[in-house]
Design goal:
With 266 residues, this protein is of the alpha/beta class. It folds into two domains: 43 residues; 199 residues, Alpha-Beta Barrel (TIM Barrel). Strands 1, 2, 3, 6, 7 and 8 form a six-stranded parallel beta sheet that branches. Helix 1 packs antiparallel against helix 2 and helix 4 runs parallel beside helix 10. It is elongated, with a radius of gyration of 20 Å.
Length: 266
């Protein structure tokens, strides 16, 4: 069952500051410029926190696997923006050949266009998670009603198609605002971002993407890649397909075991 929303210390401080600003201005009207300045500074901090995908100021944020999973040498491969009818099946084949599992953060509208592919992801032992319905680049500017509707639509779509309600949500590019945490609490979802990313929607050089993913690689890391919107290599291949074999070899050499987020936190 969804748990009651618990605001973070930063949000509690925000509520207190707003209350103090109102009461202070009523008691001393001449102090309104100071109150306004304090509120503006507070909103700037909250906005910055929303623009930093790995920040936890706005709410709990899974950026690494739990200590118990790290102790088991587990690592999480996560793939965003699918399912892609051309790329995702080949990603699944590479994962199968290596005997590893991954978490696919799928877009609701793309899942409705490719329902069989979503079911194939689950049938092969992976997990489908929630990446929003519209994948709008304006997501971090959504109000609470629109934000909840977008996430809930993807949740309903993915649960209906796969028979597995997603456990985790990841916003577009990791960007969000203070409304997200109470929305996720109401929908019984957890925010999951990443430890490191390859920027593989913009970088087509496989060696550069691989280097970003493996630099200081450690047990417990959450890696972000893209099976949808993948950049192309100079040879015209989706870069995820060029990087994944080398990445999987590196994980095997370092005795790191890729698992789904759901298995890692269970």
């Amino acid at each position: 069952m969804p748990q009651p929303w618990k605001p973070t210390p930063a949000l509690k401080a925000t509520f207190a500051l707003h209350g103090a600003a109102v009461l202070g201005t009523l008691a001393l009207p001449a102090a309104w410029p100071w109150a306004l300045g304090a509120l503006a500074a507070n909103h700037a901090v909250l906005t910055l926190a929303g623009l930093l995908p790995r920040s936890s100021l706005l709410g709990p944020n899974l950026t690494r696997l739990p200590d118990a999973a790290a102790a088991r040498r587990e690592i999480a491969l996560t793939l965003d923006d699918g399912p892609d009818p051309d790329v995702t099946p080949r990603v699944l084949d590479l994962l199968d050949a290596a005997g590893v599992k991954a978490s696919f953060f799928c877009i609701g509208w793309r899942a409705r266009e490719n329902p069989a592919l979503c079911r194939e992801i689950v049938a092969r032992g992976h997990r489908v998670e929630n990446h929003g319905d519209s994948h709008s680049w304006a997501f971090s500017a959504f109000g609470p009603g629109r934000m909840k509707a977008d996430i809930a639509a993807a949740q309903a779509t993915l649960a209906d198609i796969t028979g597995q309600p997603p456990c985790f949500f990841r916003p577009t590019a990791g960007l969000r605002n203070p409304f997200l945490d109470p929305v996720l609490a109401a929908l019984d979802l957890k925010l999951a971002t990443w430890t490191r990313r390859g920027y593989d929607t913009r970088e087509g050089r496989p060696d550069v993407v691989l280097g970003r993913l493996t630099h200081n690689l450690a047990a417990g890391d959450i890696l972000l890649m893209h099976d949808g919107h993948a950049a192309l290599t100079p040879q015209g291949q989706p870069v995820v397909l060029a990087v994944l074999p080398a990445l999987l070899r590196t994980l095997a050499e370092q005795k790191l075991k890729p698992v789904t987020l759901a298995d890692a936190v269970a």
